[in-house]
Amino acid sequence: MSRLSYFKCLVTTACLMIVSGCVSTTDSATTGSASLDKSNSALDELVQDTSCTASFQCKVLEVGQRACGGPSRYVVYSTLNTEQEKAEQLAQQINALEAENNKRNGLTDCLPVLPVQALCISQTCQSFELK
């Protein structure tokens, strides 16, 4: 085998290794994003019935984990209609997925997310930003 053929073979092999590594990284990023979307949708569906009879039934969940610290959002739900443990488990799952996303993608949105308080008003749990 001549030196030129050997060099072409070596370059081709190196290119294939690089390209195959990029494909697997993209696939895992897409899978992580899809899993995060699915978890967020599941949480939103779980907490959609916010009816209440008293403010003690209204709870606030810190959901997500921003790269610069703090939650991505706050979710208000009613313990009258939502399994509290299941909601907390979904929130923890979303926190872990967002932390993994932050490690993979680096620093993203760092706009402040103001904490909220939940109150039962007109028989519905509602959120109010604390300033």
From TrEMBL:
<keyword id="KW-0732">Signal</keyword>
<feature type="coiled-coil region">
    <location>
        <begin position="80"/>
        <end position="107"/>
    </location>
</feature>
<feature type="signal peptide">
    <location>
        <begin position="1"/>
        <end position="25"/>
    </location>
</feature>
<protein>
    <recommendedName>
        <fullName>Lipoprotein</fullName>
    </recommendedName>
</protein>
<keyword id="KW-0175">Coiled coil</keyword>
